[in-house]
Amino acid sequence: MSSCGLAMVPPAKNVVLYRNGDPFFPGRKVVVNQRRFPTFEAFLNEVTKSIHAPLAVRNLYTPRHSHRVAELGDLQDGCQYVAAGFEKFKRLDYLNHGRKELRGTSTSGWLFFPTFHSCRNTGSSHTLGCFYCSVFRNGDLLSPPFPLPLSKSTPLQWDALLATLTEKVDLRSGPVNKLCRLDGTQVSGGEELVNGHYYVAVGNEEYKKLPYFELLVPQDSAFRTLWYVD
Length: 230
Hints:
The protein is α+β, with helices and mostly antiparallel strands and 230 residues long. Among the domains are: 13-84, Doublecortin domain (Ubiquitin-like (UB roll)); 130-216, Ubiquitin-like (UB roll), CATH 3.10.20. It is built from six helices and ten strands, in the order αββαβββαββαβββαα. The chain has a five-stranded mixed sheet with strand order 2-1-5-3-4, with helices on one face. One of its GO terms (molecular function) is phosphatidylinositol-4,5-bisphosphate phospholipase C activity. InterPro entries: Doublecortin_dom, Doublecortin_dom_sf, PLipase_C_Pinositol-sp_Y.
């Protein structure tokens, strides 16, 4: 190939990719080389493997404004993007490693921590009086679980918790009416929630027993470490 032909090949781009809805994933640097990835689909397939996505990556979004990337040429060198499947974009502060949820909120009677800086899942969480659960959407095997940080020192009002879950989960069936363990048994109150455990938000429909944990929690994700916290 002539030097003129080589000059026409677009230069490689370095981008950082985050997993959609994963507030603990630190991001993975990927080199976009058109020789290696002749099509956008080939690049998405590589991204799926690179970030160990639970399902095939089919969409890329800008982290701040959730603009969808349509083709390789839209990627900008040195920029960050959020990799997703067919599920909707999850609004997290990905550029700060996702530890600050953009939709953090608090309600009377219980406290939802909007930041993860002081209440990360470490030994200090016990002394700070906070703990974490992770919540799946009933029947949804496309969306990863989201973390639910709660206060140990503030009594949980169950109705307020369900109302906030309704806002965050956005179930197709409507409001969240109950929270179930992975075996399908129903949680009746906040005192039954266990630090580091996984739950499923359910609406008016029946609980759907599916392999949520096995399919939606990557093996190397920090979400899996939550499972073993006592």
